[in-house]
């Protein structure tokens, strides 16, 4: 069973309860932490973020009328607004459960619980939270969102980012297949997840297939599934990812990485809207929305004979271009601050601040790894920071950046260098160079004129 990417904390002073809950929930969720000592709750929650806290309402030390639990619910909701609290009450404590709901909990669970009921309660709440997070992405574009899991927060305020959000808002509720284009680490997967969250399919599965890392021999059984005995290693029947995504969204990451024969197989499944497991003859109807992503130039691949035009038509009803971080220099301070807050909390360095000079250096860096690289740089810097302030010298940037700083390049110099590199790489071909740079031909001509190139 695929685990849900969610972080769960269970707080109870009974070690037996903690062990049982942990063993069960670890099979379903990516991260489960248990805590029996209430005194360390604040510290644990400051160091890590959690999506859901299961909180026992009765502690053997002190009051056992739930007062302490109610105070904790209020405290958690106040200090960690992204976290959901599920109080655990004893059978018959209806008044206490109602009071907990009044203080901000959105559901509760009674002891002794049934495991499936426990799972359903958490899963429902996470779904609700995802829907609301999705909406907040679009509503809070002009203010950094602090806390929560990295997967659900999309930060930005610049023009190209807002244009992309408007596109997402229009396209998400439709069933149109979407192709997301953009450099590595620029946020393509995040866009795919937001599209799913904002669609009517949001309470159905979002299944990702990383086609870039899927070896040839596993392609069919991974996507289509296989019957028992279909081949030597097929000891059990296996459901394919297409069927797992039924009713929901299938995210095909790195679509440019699959061979022509694999494209043909996938195309015929998408055309027939039905899938048959390898070694089986039962065809299962499919109702899936396809979202694909790539950093490759698929048109160029078609020209080279490496990509099927009919397959592209099938997957790119709508194209969304994710801007690179170089094209969003204005957003760098916002994103840097967001990640700084996140990692300050995670590593218990709440007083850490960043100087304006350090932000300027971050804005000048070309970010070949885009937002993923920015988050890594900030995380590394926070971990290594000895002082209360992050200065330019504290930023552990890649060597290329150090060279640039020695040359004292500014953003215009950086842009000029990039344009020259793109032209050199593409033997002066303006169409290809502009595509590499993520701008249109006219914009490239304007810049050539501006820099006298
Ligand atoms: N607008 C954003 N605000 C905050 N974080 C973001 C934003 N866009 C991307 N990220 C974060 O940057 C990291 C990389 O994003 P993501 O995996 O979506 O990129 P990608 O384009 O799919 O990368 P790849 O091409 O390598 O698969 C993730 O941790 C993601 O949460």
UniProtKB/TrEMBL annotation:
The keyword Transcription regulation is annotated on this UniProt entry: yes
Positions of the Response regulatory domain: 7-126
InterPro entries: AAA+_ATPase, AAA_lid_NorR, CheY-like_superfamily, Homeodomain-like_sf, HTH_Fis, P-loop_NTPase, Sig_transdc_resp-reg_receiver, Sigma_54_int
Keyword annotations from UniProtKB, A to Z: ATP-binding, DNA-binding, Nucleotide-binding, Phosphoprotein, Transcription, Transcription regulation
PROSITE patterns per record: RESPONSE_REGULATORY, SIGMA54_INTERACT_2, SIGMA54_INTERACT_3, SIGMA54_INTERACT_4
Sigma-54 factor interaction domain: residues covered: 154-383
Keyword Mitochondrion belongs to the record: no
Pfam family membership, one: HTH_8
Residue positions where 4-aspartylphosphate is found in the record: 56
Protein name: Sigma-54 dependent transcriptional regulator
Source organism of the structure: Reichenbachiella agarivorans
